[in-house]
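Q: Here's a chain of 258 amino acids. Please give me its 3D structure as tokens.
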Amino acid sequence: MKLYFKFFLMHLKSRMAYKKSFFFSILGRFLTSFTTFLTIVFLFDRFHVVKGYTMGEVLLTSGVTLMSFALAEMFFRGFDSMQFIIKDASFDRLLLRPRSLIFQVMCQMIEFGRIGIIIQSAIMLAIGISLSGVTWTIQRVFVLILMIPTGSLLFSSLFLLHAAVCFFTLEGLEFVNILTYGAREYGSYPFDVYGNALLKICTYIIPYALTQYYPLQYLIGRTDSIWYGLVSLAAPLFFVPTYALWRLGVRKYKSAGS
């Protein structure tokens, strides 16, 4: 962590060398993500309730998903550029250094512009908390806080999956973006809104629902089982198969550079 903190400060100092650009990038990300908030507001202004969910409950869901994704993208964005690291043989240099490959790829890029999205998601969370009508107890506060880091770890695992695929294709496959950037969009609403088929996929295959849908049911009082709230602890286990694929890709790696 001490070494990572040094890399963090290096990236921050390089961005702060152009302060106006740094703050405008944050503002730009904030305004871009603001469209998600407006979409929800306009939708509920017309329909009031979507499959039994109020605007406050959806804002709660969207805020958690957006913040989880923004944190993962901020610290794990280096994996999204894995195809370029392989193509220009930068990965060869990483193999020669006495540090974890995952650690080194993480240190390649830190996206400070995502702070704007984090601010926007915090505003959505605050509004969602005030409008949801949830009776907040210590258990519910704990479950809400737990949803964010577990969701972030899940999205981070998906970025790792995207990077692992590049070892076999040398190109980042666009369909993987459905699992990351796509999930950021359709994760703005509880997954049962889209039907039971997607809910099952998001439970048993790519476990988004463990950090979003099931804890939400506990928060809004649709179930009294605390296990619905704590099921998000199982979501980071998705890292295990993605890490296994990453290790397989590293073993199969052949330099693409000169």
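Q: Can you summarize the key feature?
A: The first helix runs from residue 2 to 16.
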